[in-house]
Amino acid sequence: MPKNTAAAEAEVKRRSMFQESMHRLVQNKLAMTGLFILVIITVLCLCAGIICPEGYDHQDVLNKFVGPCREYPFGTDSLGRSMLARILYGGRNSLKIGVMATAFSGVVGTVLGAVAGFYGGRVDNIIMRTLDIFSAIPNMLMAIAVSSALGGGLINCIIAIAISGTPQIARTVRAPILAVKEQEYVEAAREIDASDARIIFRHVLPNVLSPLIVTLTSQVAASILVATALSFLGLGIQPPEPEWGALISNSRQYIREYPFLVTFPGLAIALTVLSMNLFGDGLRDALDPKLKN
Q: Which residues contact 171 (CB under 8 A, 6 or more apart)?
């Protein structure tokens, strides 16, 4: 066996499971490209106050519908507001909704899925059949119904999207727990009178983190799409707060004369969702134990 091959195999054996997963992730060019684009978009949105100090609602009626130029790289809207500023500030709201809605549905879905999978029986049937009722309604339709009932706004939009995404998280957590709870180390924890909560959170959940992390990554992208759709319909972020879907909605009547008004927000949505999906796919491949060898 060549020395370099033997050295490479020895290096792989010395790596921990986490190190090996991160190594495969770094080697995935598409995943790293997605992560790079996502980081750039996030940094630009966070630095919106520095890039566009005039703010997102500064109006210059003498410069309405100005096309992309040096002073206004993305042009101006019907009120003379910089589209660059509104896209960057709107990105803050879109990313905030995606992350916070996913975090909320992740916590609730993880708890419900863990309890259902660990206890089984009647508890499992009650929780999962209830979630099946929500799952029977498409996510977008559920988000629209909840948002219509609660009204528009940032918090209500987050709640609506989180409710629609919770069943998927719960199913993702429940499935592997059904197998993990029968392992010997779980039985050993029961024998030493460990509480159910300790067994679930210290011994069971850490072993289902891989599929959960991948699902949450994809859920952020899906939440951003749902948020933009709600804002497009007038059920999400309310004026004068900018949001990518709302920007497209407000500019759709000018799409023939001034297509740049919808092109740039649309590109922001497409790039963000694409980058998250690329990174999520790479993360799934890196965490898949079947790809170790």
A: 113, 128, 131, 135
74 phi, psi to nearest 5 deg: -110, 10
Which CA distances in Å does 120 have to 127, 129, 162, 168, 182?
A: 10, 12, 25, 18, 12
Asked if residues 291 and 24 have their Cβ atoms less than 8 Å apart, the reply is: yes
pLDDT of residue 93: 92
Give the distance, in angstroms, between the CA of residue 53 and the centroid of all CA atoms in the same chain: 28
User: Is 10 a domain residue?
Assistant: no
Cβ pair 213, 287 in contact under 8 A: yes
* DSSP calls for 7-67: HHHHHHHHS-HHHHHHHHHHH-HHHHHHHHHHHHHHHHHHTHHHH-TT-SS---GGGTTPP
Residue 6 lies in a domain: no
pLDDT confidence of residue 14: 53
What is the total count of domains within the chain?
A: 1
For range 276-285, the mean pLDDT:
88
Q: Residue 289 — pLDDT band, cuts 50, 70, 90?
A: low
Which token pair is 104? 């909320």
Tell me the Ramachandran region of residue 143: left when phi exceeds 0, alpha when psi lies from -120 to 50, beta otherwise.
alpha
Task: List CB contacts of 115: < 8 A, sequence separation 6 or more.
Answer: 123, 127, 200
76 has which bridge partners?
A: 82
Q: Is the four-CA dihedral 12, 14, 20, 26 of positive or negative sign?
A: negative
How far is residue 21's CA from residue 15's CA, in Å, rounded to a whole number? 9
Residue 12 lies inside a defined structural domain of this protein: no
Mean of pLDDT over the chain: 86
Q: Give me the CATH number covering residue 50.
A: 1.10.3720.10
Q: Is 76 helix (H, G, I), strand (E, B) or coil?
A: strand
pTM of the predicted protein model? 0.85
